[in-house]
Specification:
Elements lengths: L1 E8 L9 E8 L3 E6 L6 H8 L7 E6 L10 H4 E4 L11 H12 L4 H9 L4 H5 L7 H12 L6 E5 L7 H16 L3 E6 L2 H7 L2 E6 L2 E6 L1 H8 L2 H13 L1
Parallel strand pairs: 3-7, 3-8, 5-6, 6-7
Antiparallel strand pairs: 1-2, 1-4, 8-9
Helix pairs in contact: 3-4, 4-6
Length: 237
């Protein structure tokens, strides 16, 4: 469903590439945790995948195609990259209904998604400027799910969620994968992602330094947290 193949990106003034031949796949029916410290290259890779940036070389594809060349990209991949992307003066319901209008969906879909992500009718009538970070994250997830797409690309979606919200998010993403969807979940928080993901891809210094199942990583290296900090520190040095 998602494929990165030798994706490379450099920025002027940096001593090393932001992405250095990054390659991995996110198959249908799975959740892949995309892990790494801040500045490791996770967001850059995801933005290129979604057509919001350009690579120097290599490819990033969704359902076998460049995202920008998909006939209906929003029907294939939903994303949450920035919880602050909504206009602060709109209500949550207005923000979602605008998305429905843009995508040709019935307005009632907005209310269905508010309920799905745990935002009440009263929350939907509030201006986004009054939302907590966790509420904005839930609204962003609702936006990502508007078309019920088979692919989800989520950058730090658990930020601002309390423990109950994090459990809810994990259950939601596991359910999507069990329906045959592909979920790419970026985070710098290893523990929660380790429990949720089918596969862990660790990036540091723009390079993939680990790509395996949690069980195999534990079998090979013992404590995954210690292994994670070790490989990310070595790659960033």
């Amino acid at each position: 469903m998602i494929t990165f193949d030798k994706l490379t990106k450099t920025y002027p003034g940096l001593r090393r590439p932001a992405l250095d031949e990054v390659s991995f796949t996110v198959p249908a029916g799975s959740v892949t945790g995309f892990l790494g410290p801040n500045g490791a290259g996770k967001s850059t890779a995801m933005r290129i995948l979604l057509g919001l940036g350009h690579a120097d070389s290599g490819t990033a594809r969704v359902a076998g195609q460049n995202y920008r060349r998909l006939p209906e990209p929003a029907a294939v991949a939903g994303s949450l990259l920035d919880a602050d992307a909504f206009h602060p003066g709109r209500t949550g319901r207005e923000a979602l209904r605008l998305g429905c209008l843009t995508l040709g969906l019935p307005a009632r879909r907005a209310d269905e998604l508010l309920d799905l992500v745990g935002l009440s009718a009263a929350d939907g009538r509030r201006r986004v400027r009054g939302y907590s970070l966790g509420m904005r994250q839930r609204l962003g997830l609702a936006q990502a799910l508007l078309t019920d797409p088979p692919v989800l690309v989520l950058d730090e979606p658990a930020n601002g969620l309390d423990p109950q919200g994090q459990r809810w998010l994990g259950e939601l993403l596991r359910a999507r994968a069990e329906r045959g969807g592909a979920v790419l979940l970026s985070s710098h928080q290893l523990t929660d992602v380790e429990r949720l993901a089918d596969r862990l891809v660790v990036i540091a210094g723009g390079r993939v330094v680990a790509d395996d199942t949690p069980a195999r990583l534990r079998a090979l290296h013992g404590d995954i947290t210690e292994f994670y900090f070790s490989v990310t520190a070595d790659a960033a040095a």
